[in-house]
Amino acid sequence: MLTLGEIAERTGSELIGDPEQQVAGVCTLQNGRPDCIAFLANPRYRKYLADTHAGAVFVTRELAEQCPVAALVNDNPYLAYARAAALLAPPRALEPGVHPSAVVAEDAVVDPSAQIAAQAVVESGADIGPGVLVGPGCVVGRDVRIGADTRLVANVTLCEGVRLGVRCLLHPGVVVGSDGFGIARDGARWVKVPQLGGVRIGDDVEIGANTTIDRGALEDTVIESGVKLDNQIQIAHNVQIGENTAIAGCAGISGSARIGRNCMIAGGVGVVGHLEIADGVVVTGMSMVTRSIPEPGVYSSGLPAQPNEQWNRITARLRRLDDMARRLRELERRLEQGEDAD
Amino acid sequence: MLTLGEIAERTGSELIGDPEQQVAGVCTLQNGRPDCIAFLANPRYRKYLADTHAGAVFVTRELAEQCPVAALVNDNPYLAYARAAALLAPPRALEPGVHPSAVVAEDAVVDPSAQIAAQAVVESGADIGPGVLVGPGCVVGRDVRIGADTRLVANVTLCEGVRLGVRCLLHPGVVVGSDGFGIARDGARWVKVPQLGGVRIGDDVEIGANTTIDRGALEDTVIESGVKLDNQIQIAHNVQIGENTAIAGCAGISGSARIGRNCMIAGGVGVVGHLEIADGVVVTGMSMVTRSIPEPGVYSSGLPAQPNEQWNRITARLRRLDDMARRLRELERRLEQGEDAD
Amino acid sequence: MLTLGEIAERTGSELIGDPEQQVAGVCTLQNGRPDCIAFLANPRYRKYLADTHAGAVFVTRELAEQCPVAALVNDNPYLAYARAAALLAPPRALEPGVHPSAVVAEDAVVDPSAQIAAQAVVESGADIGPGVLVGPGCVVGRDVRIGADTRLVANVTLCEGVRLGVRCLLHPGVVVGSDGFGIARDGARWVKVPQLGGVRIGDDVEIGANTTIDRGALEDTVIESGVKLDNQIQIAHNVQIGENTAIAGCAGISGSARIGRNCMIAGGVGVVGHLEIADGVVVTGMSMVTRSIPEPGVYSSGLPAQPNEQWNRITARLRRLDDMARRLRELERRLEQGEDAD
């Protein structure tokens, strides 16, 4: 329980309402509860404001007057809401210590304030910092280093030598440090190229469920601080991702690609290997980046779905586009000759 | 072992053959075995009917005459085959009880008819119904509820508070209830938005290997009864999927999308967030749904592969499509002026 | 430690330099170390040759003269490098035996030279060959057979009856033998089609992190020897993949597709079901193969990303392509009539 006054102060919001009003949690505008706070950030939800049953709402100044309950005025209501939610519903406290069913190598270092949960494995030489959670079923390989307050939720695998910064959050099924896809041709056969680099992950990095990050071939794969990765993403060997870049689900980043800071890569995007993307680049859904992008901006090659009949006509025309272009040029030529002839 | 007579009765088929003939299992038409039953549903396999060594074949009425062995006549031979296969090769019976290596919280409720397999973890407050399988290496988080006869095959992770109906089947590597991808901008940095909703999954839902379903931000992510999900699918927070919708492998559904009942979403499809898809919509392979689809029908934006040389010409033309359109309009203008001048 | 002379001999390279020079490992050209060997295969790295601090470099004959340090001359420097790296940094030796925390069924056969790591599960009837690694958290289902020297790194799941050849390498999160996506319509509802086939995997197959391979419906899914699969790939039931085919990350192969030998399938490619791809076919990134490909060659349908504004104009034009084609034909018709009239 917090008061509205406390929440206003700790989120840097201006309160229009009773500072002593008690708040138990957070809610949506549509399903508001009198002891909870909602927020209004996306304009499409504005219609729910007038009738909300929430106890208070984070709003921008321009909407504060329309708020039928207590208003917490903030330039960035979504950010203020996120902070309030973290205060009202903090992550569960750890239960420090090693669960009897966990297997921890004798020479691994586990801070006494860390929790090693049931059925987890911590291999030789690993170093687990203070306040770290190694969740149930996680495997922490040899010589892995995990910084303070990082949490591996469950069934996460960190391969040999991976380094994680502080306050990272890795969701179930994440794999970090698997071998990169390095193969060399030997006639018709392939010979494996040993993957001898590592993976370095900065601070405050979040990695979604079942996302995979390969170790480098010789140098390290690097994920800088503040990077946010959604689920089911593939990051190949020797990729570098700059600070605070966010990548949505099902994207795939090929080997040795370098992505700048503060980029936003949408869902299902593919990035070809050995190229560079500048800081501040946005790539929209299901696009394929085939060349370096030296300038910030928005880039796309995704196609929006249409009724199948229309789409089939378009793809049929597309196959004859070369022919259309030739016929167009021929028409221009004839028309010019005709005009010359006049 | 069943007789053809029993199988005909239990699949609602008409038998043309000896009802006492013994059947041990199922087989394909091409590799038929005399003690097994095959089926003919896809016309491309009709050529194998005449020479089949199967003991009997599920066929439609029109093909019954051409069947060289016993015929089980049914309007839907594939469905009848599925039912016969389930009778002849039922899933392995459980071995009720908790494996000594499993870790089950004291206050978790496990029905005596359920099986908790080796190395599994069941956390505090979980409620495991009758006939449930929690397979080897699975992690069942706090306060999870699993309905009767649901099976988690192996290495499945259910995060805190997830609710599963009855007779669901979750394949290895599935993650349900991981945090949604909620981040709020704070200048250049991102602040995590706590994901406080849950996941509710209905009855008879099947979820393929390594598919991920995120928990809601505030309300629940909802998968209704009869939904069938293939492998490697990503379902983001607050998605709702209606009854009996089937989604093929590698599809990605973005946050707060609402998909109707009886839809069929093909492999590799991407669905953008915050939109609605009506009941009975079909989306073909690798399409991207960018707007709400209010009407049933078939929708597409996938492009079929072509020889690379042709494709490169097409994409080069595509880049100049705007130019082509302008030149076409210019020609029309000139021709009209020319005709006016005549 | 090896000498340059030994490395030259064992990689079939000609040495220009001191055969007694000691080598401790491998490095890149850019970050060369005097006790390590680098390689130069990709022309874009040629600029680093002149200033390298590496102790020796694998190069082609034409570049040997420009090499400022010892040169190991080889027609295929990348392959020679791969071999040298394997000599200098061999995979960690196993610790044969069963870890006390592992659970191995009484009637499973485990070769004494195999290692069953912490928290692993080996079920009834499984047969684990010599030199095999079943890494931490792996689940080996009933009656699985694993050939000599195959390694499951960690948290791998092999379902009932899967067969793996010798010298395979399966990375964390891999699932082999999960049920295929087989469902039969029963009015609006779906009925599961039991998946009764298996999975057969040849020798020297590598499978990347979180890749999934489904068991066949009736016959087996087959991955032939020498196949290399990257991360996050989905292989559906009854697929067949020919020898030495390589598939990059996030690709999806639909049911009953048959892919030939020595193919290269790039990242994010989708292959539709029930079709055949010839030997030696290359499919470029994010393409969708919708028909059989009977001839070797390069095939594509991926679209390169462009500045969003340009792309939006293109997609708008694309929607009117049918209209453009009609107007073009109309112009041709009018022009012909005009010329006839002259």
- Which pair of chains has the greatest number of interface residues, and how are they split between the two chains? A-B, 76 and 75 residues
**CATH homologous superfamily title of the largest domain in chain A:** Hexapeptide repeat proteins
How is the CATH topology of the largest domain in chain A named? Answer: UDP N-Acetylglucosamine Acyltransferase, domain 1
Strand content of chain A: 25-35%
Specify the number of helices of chain A.
Answer: 5
Whole-Å distance between the termini of chain A?
89 Å
Unreliable sequence segments of chain A: none
Please identify the oligomeric state: homotrimer
**What is the radius of gyration of chain A computed over CA atoms, rounded to a whole number of angstroms?**
27 Å
Shape of chain A: flat
Tally of discrete structural domains of chain A:
3
Helix content of chain A: 10-25%
What does this structure look like?
3 copies of one chain form a homotrimer. By secondary structure, the first copy, chain A, is an alpha/beta fold. In chain A, helix 2 links the parallel strand 6 (56-59) and strand 7 (70-73). Helices cover 17% and strands 29% of the residues of chain A. Chain A is built from 5 helices and 40 strands. Chain A folds into 3 domains: 2-88, 3-Layer(aba) Sandwich (Udp-n-acetylmuramoylalanyl-d-glutamate--2,6- Diaminopimelate Ligase, Chain: A, domain 1), CATH 3.40.1390.10; 97-299, Hexapeptide repeat proteins (UDP N-Acetylglucosamine Acyltransferase, domain 1), CATH 2.160.10; 309-341. In chain A, the strands form 6 sheets. In chain A, strands 8-11-14-17-20-25-28-31-34-37-39 form an 11-stranded parallel sheet, with no helix packed on it. A 10-stranded parallel sheet of chain A has the order 9-12-15-18-21-26-29-32-35-38, with no helix packed on it. Chain A is flat, with a radius of gyration of 27 Å. The interface between A and C is large, with 75 and 76 residues.
